[in-house]
Amino acid sequence: MSLNKPIRVLIVDDSALVRKLLTEILGQAKGIEVVGAAPDPYVARDKIKALDPDVLTLDVEMPRMDGLTFLRNLMRLRPMPVVMVSSLTAKGAEVTLQALELGAVDFVRKPELDVIHGLQAYADELVAKIRVAAAARVKTPASLAARPPGGQGSTAPPPRKIQSFRTTDRVIAIGASTGGTEAIKEVLMLLPPDTPGVVIAQHIPPGFSAAFAERMNRQTGLVVKEAADGDRVMAGHAYVAPGDYHLQLARDGARYVCRLSQSEHVNRHRPSVDVLFRSVVRAAGTNATAALLTGMGADGAEGLRELHEIGVHTVAQDEATSVVWGMPGEAVKRGAASEVLPLPKIAEALLKGAKA
């Protein structure tokens, strides 16, 4: 996109009130132009052809065709940046994660139309995510490109053969933001069931982190859970920071444990990748290995640099496979990465680093 041209947005939502609200919010943002709105996917399909928008906002539940079916068709036939507008419910969280798997760049929670307070914070989040989406690298997900219409999802994960519930003297730390739910999944799917314990900070709001962990638990060969304060970090397990909580690694004698806190936001985030990585420096030192994956901004870059400086093997995802090369790109600029790798090679590098 040209820096001089506004980001052209098409809003797709069955609620006239939501369409009006999103149009007003985005219409006031500098550098963004709402070119149209559609009440359902069929109208949206025609407007995409006529208006050629740069970014789509897409409701999950709509009449005539649900948002996931429309997104699946769109990403197979005309890949483009999509930001999902999702309700904060267990069902909404699961459907939103499916949308990210299908190629949506990001999501925002549906605005609470009866609550004016906090609307500006919602507006700031929406505008920021539209801008990130406009710059994102979007392509047809491999699963859609390879899967025939009506086909089932990916193959089942390998069986879990964890020899015992032992603690780990090595640990793997992973941080990510925009595009990270799918990037993390790809890394975890390539890790064996006896891998060292994994701690994860993904920028994700409350209500979605548990669904994300449950989804990873079903789709990978690891035992994945939303971290709880005091959880023992064990081999073959991965622990996801809960939304709105910092996750830190700590020692309890010879064991690693998870510690949660709601201390101040760091780099405007809670959970923050920097908070996690710095705790790994303190608790594990060179017994760790770490990767910084796709995401907007710089959170995690400094923490990765601190890990690198004490001799930890650190990995940054490369630009070509990142949805947004903000966080890993910043880490590379700071000399924080031992290796810069495409996403499919990161799991192997983390395992080698954990054995070093």
From TrEMBL:
Keywords: Chemotaxis, Cytoplasm, Hydrolase, Phosphoprotein. GO terms for biological process: chemotaxis. It holds the Pfam family Response_reg. Signal peptide: none annotated. Residues 8-125 form the Response regulatory domain. It catalyses: [protein]-L-glutamate 5-O-methyl ester + H2O = L-glutamyl-[protein] + methanol + H(+); L-glutaminyl-[protein] + H2O = L-glutamyl-[protein] + NH4(+). Phosphorylated by CheA. Phosphorylation of the N-terminal regulatory domain activates the methylesterase activity. It is an enzyme of class 3 (hydrolase). It is found in: Cytoplasm. Its EC number is 3.1.1.61, 3.5.1.44. Residues 165-356 form the CheB-type methylesterase domain. The keyword ATP-binding does not apply. The active site is at 177, 203, 299. Residues 141-162 are annotated as: Disordered. InterPro entries: CheB-like, CheB_C, CheY-like_superfamily, Sig_transdc_resp-reg_Me-estase, Sig_transdc_resp-reg_receiver. CDD domains: CheB_Rec, REC_CheB-like. SUPFAM superfamilies: CheY-like, Methylesterase CheB, C-terminal domain. The modification 4-aspartylphosphate is found at residue 59. Contains a C-terminal catalytic domain, and an N-terminal region which modulates catalytic activity. Belongs to the CheB family. Involved in chemotaxis. Part of a chemotaxis signal transduction system that modulates chemotaxis in response to various stimuli. Catalyzes the demethylation of specific methylglutamate residues introduced into the chemoreceptors (methyl-accepting chemotaxis proteins or MCP) by CheR. Also mediates the irreversible deamidation of specific glutamine residues to glutamic acid. This is Protein-glutamate methylesterase/protein-glutamine glutaminase. It comes from Thiorhodococcus mannitoliphagus.
